[in-house]
Design a protein that fits this description.
InterPro entries: AB_hydrolase_1, AB_hydrolase_fold, Sec-Metab_Biosynth_Hydrolase. This protein is of the alpha/beta class. It starts with 7 loop residues before the first strand and ends with a helix. It has 10 helices and 8 strands. It has a single domain, classed as Alpha/Beta hydrolase fold, catalytic domain (Rossmann fold), CATH 3.40.50. It is globular, with a radius of gyration of 16 Å. A 6-stranded parallel sheet has the order 2-1-3-4-7-8, sandwiched between helices. A two-stranded antiparallel sheet has the order 5-6.
Length: 237
Amino acid sequence: MDAGAVRNVVLVHGGFVDGSGWQLVYDLLKHDGYNVAVVQNPTLSLEGDAAATRRVIDAQDGPVVLVGHSYGGAVITEAGTHPSVAALVYIAAFVPDKGESVSTLIANPPPGAPVPPILPPKDGFLLLDREKFPASFAGDLPAEQAAFMADSQVPWGTDALGGSITEPAWREKPSWYLVATEDRMIPPPAQRAMSERAGSTVDEVAGSHAIYVSQPAAVAATIEQAASASAARQQVR
């Protein structure tokens, strides 16, 4: 770890999964000397997930690099206004602006873009089609691992999908974005457009939507880049 780097990292998962998918990224960051915490979002509502994230940030000693994957990007956009957050890192993630939600961002997919195999809502929750999950979410993972992720899905609340941003943290905080160029859940052009709008520092890596599982070294490198760059900003403040 860079001697001057921000040393606390908080990892926020997206929809359909839980925080255990961060384990390889967690292990790499811990090995490099970072303090790492993983938020377990209930994924019932954006408001609730932002509150859960703020509680974890509150527990950290010092400035934090806040990281979100997929829907977790909406969560960190909402929770990242917390004064301890020094930087935001989006991993193949949604980056909504004020008044936007994941629901509005996916409402009009570009022509020819793959459409995520989300099943119709049931009792206020969403799941991905189990048979189509591996190709859409985890195309570069071993078949057995992708099947396990499909079978262990966490139901995603429609209130989380529809929760809109009150004040987007990226308008005040520096951000980094890792584009997954083989993503079949959030089209790479959409990732590039959102990261450009946010003024993020962008890396691109060949990987599926589950890039945080399949390419942990690339993900950890982007997070560490943010941690190092944010140190200088903290010293100036």
